[in-house]
């Protein structure tokens, strides 16, 4: 295991912007409003990713940028809502997207560095925020696009495609499907080429029932005061407290050790049990993150009654009856949860936390999803309630999307102000995983201590 800090010398990638413009659908699209589900409603924040490509002599950055722009114009026809604008329906008290062909953002830039000079591309890098700008210059806030695509050339001939998406547009699986379609359309100049995957844009498939019927308790959500239209992201840290960023690297050996700890015999009432639990890579990595977060927070307030709650993202597509279409393009996700006192977390065997996370997933049934959707319909303005939100990229496959210039050599989330979110994503150079940690500077030191201490205490 290792903890990787940002490289302070790489906070400025010496970027020059050549183009910052709007891209419009290549054909006329119908003006309409896109219904957003109650799950979409609380995801009003941007997610930025960076996808790096090695130099390809047949596709220098300027040619790749032209191909990508052309493909974007074409894909905005079937994905017309991506060229729309977020709006507030005062009558229904909810967000909608006006599909008005106002355009997506497109930026072309260059850096004075080569890819090799950036070092480990998985390393948390504050400079990568320059590779996925959230807003276009010279546009007022109310005219900003919901998505911006950026091609940044490096002096070696390699380049990065940065993407900034409002989460209301897509969840991870829908974003991958969109990227596969975008990549497919970039291969040639055929105007009517079919999409690689057919998306389903009907978000009413996750609409609330009429009348709503709440059949479960939902402590994973918190009621906020009424938020103004287009308010700041509800899961971001609204304070000005400085954040530190670290990358936790868990090797295959580390993961096997965590799985062994999760499945080792536990003493209960003097008896031994060897019942195996679902010690997946995600479950053990999430349990370790939760433990470190809970103990580092507890170190600050020493409140014996402090409760720590982990939230973790669960895909709903196959959990509903009937299942959602495979091509569902909205947010088909919910947060499962587990809660415990910090003092208990400190004393418990690791197995206990993995077991709680595993059990939280089984709670997400068809009826539970319907209950959540109806609960959010009744209680507008809710946000996820938890001090540790874990999102997994382990099965998304960003690195497998093939463009004309090849597959990316690295795909990584870009550091941001979403301080409660921990991103788990694969390490393409090994069988291990990476965890991007974003914590207030005052807490990061104790978080790192508990991470190292867990392995040291268990002699690994």
Can you summarize this structure?
By secondary structure, the chain is of the alpha+beta class. The protein is 25% helix and 26% strand.
Q: Topology of this structure?
A:
Blueprint: E1 2-4, E2 15-23, E3 32-35, H1 38-41, E4 46-53, H2 61-75, E5 85-89, E6 94-99, E7 104-111, E8 147-153, E9 159-166, H3 172-185, E10 221-223, E11 243-250, H4 252-263, E12 266-268, E13 271-273, H5 281-301, E14 307-315, E15 333-341, H6 342-347, H7 350-362, H8 366-378, E16 382-384, E17 388-392, E18 410-413, E19 421-426, E20 433-440, H9 441-457
Parallel strand pairs: 7-8, 14-17, 17-19
Antiparallel strand pairs: 1-11, 2-7, 3-6, 4-9, 4-18, 5-6, 8-9, 10-16, 11-20, 12-13, 14-15, 19-20
Number of strands: 20
Rg, Cα atoms, Å: 22 Å
The description of the largest β-sheet is: 7 strands, mixed
Q: Kindly report the name of the CATH homologous superfamily of the largest domain.
A: Chloramphenicol acetyltransferase-like domain
GO molecular function, one term: acyltransferase activity, transferring groups other than amino-acyl groups
Family: Belongs to the plant acyltransferase family.
Pfam family, one: Transferase
Organism: Erythranthe guttata (Yellow monkey flower)
Summarize this structure as a short list of keywords or feature phrases.
alpha+beta, 9 helices, globular, Chloramphenicol Acetyltransferase, 460 residues, seven-stranded mixed β-sheet, 25% helix, 2 domains
């Amino acid at each position: 295991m290792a903890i990787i800090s940002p490289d302070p010398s790489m906070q400025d990638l010496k970027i020059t912007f050549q183009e910052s413009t709007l891209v419009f659908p290549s054909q006329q699209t119908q003006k309409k409003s896109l219904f957003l589900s109650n799950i979409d409603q609380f995801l009003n924040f941007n997610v930025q990713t960076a996808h790096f490509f090695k130099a390809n002599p047949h596709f220098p950055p300027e040619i790749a940028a032209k191909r990508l722009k052309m493909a974007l114009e074409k894909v905005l026809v079937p994905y017309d809502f991506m060229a729309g604008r977020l709006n507030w329906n005062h009558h229904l008290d909810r967000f909608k997207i006006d599909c008005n062909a106002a355009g997506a953002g497109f930026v072309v830039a260059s850096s004075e560095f080569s890819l090799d000079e950036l070092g480990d591309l998985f390393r948390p890098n504050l400079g990568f925020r320059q590779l996925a700008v959230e807003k276009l210059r010279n546009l007022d806030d109310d005219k900003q696009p919901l998505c911006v695509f950026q091609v940044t050339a490096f002096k070696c001939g390699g380049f990065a495609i940065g993407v900034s998406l409002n989460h209301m547009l897509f969840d991870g699986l829908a974003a991958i499907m969109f990227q596969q379609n975008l990549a497919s359309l970039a291969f040639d100049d055929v105007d009517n080429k079919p999409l690689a995957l057919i998306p389903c844009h009907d978000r009413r498939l996750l609409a609330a029932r009429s009348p709503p019927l709440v059949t479960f308790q939902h402590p994973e959500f918190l009621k906020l005061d009424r938020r103004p239209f287009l308010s700041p992201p509800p899961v971001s840290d609204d304070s000005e407290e400085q954040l530190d960023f670290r990358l936790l690297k868990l090797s295959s050996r580390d993961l096997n050790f965590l799985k062994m700890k999760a499945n080792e015999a536990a003493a209960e009432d003097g008896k031994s049990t060897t019942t195996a639990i679902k010690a997946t890579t995600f479950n053990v990595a999430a349990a370790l993150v939760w433990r470190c977060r809970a103990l580092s927070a507890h170190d600050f307030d020493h409140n014996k009654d402090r409760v720590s709650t982990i939230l973790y993202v669960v895909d709903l597509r196959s959990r509903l009856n009937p299942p959602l279409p495979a091509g569902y393009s909205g947010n088909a996700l919910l947060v499962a949860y587990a809660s415990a006192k910090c003092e208990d977390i400190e004393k418990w065997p690791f197995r206990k936390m993995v077991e709680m996370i595993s059990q939280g997933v089984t709670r997400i049934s068809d009826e539970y999803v319907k209950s959540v959707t109806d609960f959010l319909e009744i209680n507008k303005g809710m946000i996820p309630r938890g001090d540790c939100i874990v999102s997994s990229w382990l099965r998304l496959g960003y690195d497998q999307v093939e463009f004309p210039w090849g597959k990316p050599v690295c795909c990584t989330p870009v550091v941001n102000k979403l301080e409660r979110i921990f991103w788990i994503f694969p390490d393409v150079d090994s069988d291990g995983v990476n965890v991007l940690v974003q914590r207030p500077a005052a807490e990061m030191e104790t978080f790192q201590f508990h991470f190292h201490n867990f392995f040291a205490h268990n002699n690994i």
